[in-house]
Amino acid sequence: MKMLTDEIREDFDRIALLTEHHGGAGDIYHNYVRRHLPSHCEKALEIGCGTGEFTRLMAASAQTIVAIDLSPQMIRLAQQQSADYPNIEYRLGDFLRLSLPAESYDCIVSLATLHHLPLEQALLKMKDALKPDGVLIIHDLIADDGIIDTGISALAYPISAARRFWKTGRPRAPREVREAWAAHGKGEVYLTLNEIREMCRQYLPEAKVKRHLLWRYTVVWHKRGAV
Q1: pLDDT in tens, 10-23
Q2: Mean of pLDDT values over 173-192
Q3: Beta strands of 93-162 (E only): which ranges?
Q4: pTM to 2 decimal places
Q5: Strand (E) positions, the chain?
Q6: 86: exposed, middle or buried (C-beta count within 10 Å: 0-12, 13-18, 19+)?
Q7: Residue 203: its H or E element
């Protein structure tokens, strides 16, 4: 597991440096995820914060935010770009190894990170750290499963290219950025929609699941308070 963690850290250090040099198009679904943040949030946790793009969006909804990432370069960029956000605390580390107080966060967000973690261990730790009546939001990549999903993916490619062109002036990321992401993605395994629903049935009962066009899904789960 440590070797895998080290490889992920090195991959994202490289991607962070490329992002610093070339910029990025951002995630099209950040505003969708943001709409599910609780309106009154004293303390929030973000797992896998990257350069802090979504963390800074959360800053308007939470009094304090703890944002964790495995990559020193990602944390460096996040801190540089968040100098005007005093309510954000960035922490470098492995989410599974960090000590988190039980039932301490009104909202926990995991963006494109769950697929890097042991599913059961990660979900149980997230649930344990969440306050009663708190909100857990998981946003991650989804695997195709069948002809319908393959058709959706085929439709997504030109839309993704058009969006990138609108945001950056080019239909694709620079070659070295694409190569870095391709190298990182080798061997990665994502959940299918049916597997996501089964995950929710086991660990996040009554969660709302949304499949998005551009290879993503969102799960929103409200932790029941004491009866």
Answers
A1: 898 888 888 876 66
A2: 78
A3: 105-111, 130-141
A4: 0.88
A5: 41-47, 62-69, 88-92, 105-111, 130-141, 208-211, 216-222
A6: exposed
A7: helix 193-203
